[in-house]
Amino acid sequence: MKATSKQRGWIVRSGDGYLCPKDGDVGYTANLVDASTFDTEEEAKDAGRDHCDPGFVVIRDPR
Questions:
Q1: Which keywords, in A-to-Z order, does the entry hold (predicted)?
Q2: Is residue 23 in a domain?
Q3: Where are the alpha helices (DSSP H) in 1-63?
Q4: Is residue 2 in a domain?
Q5: What is the count of structural domains for the chain?
Q6: What share of the chain is helix, strand, coil (3-state, %, to 5)?
Q7: Which structural domain range is residue 22 located in?
Q8: Does some domain include residue 1?
Q9: pLDDT tens profile 24-39
Q10: Which pTM value belongs to this model?
Q11: 41 pairs with which residues across the strands?
């Protein structure tokens, strides 16, 4: 799930939160710092479809 340092990866934003790891599953956080990073845009979209309501956004990791 983590992208390499050369490639920033992709983040899923849903409403005013982000997908993040939580107890071996996926949760939500309001903090970008805690957001999960996905290797590919497609992997991030799949996670968004699985864990978010319609309207989620996949963005390039700005960190």
A1: Plasmid
A2: yes
A3: 41-51
A4: no
A5: 1
A6: 20, 35, 45
A7: 10-60
A8: no
A9: 888 999 999 999 999 9
A10: 0.81
A11: none
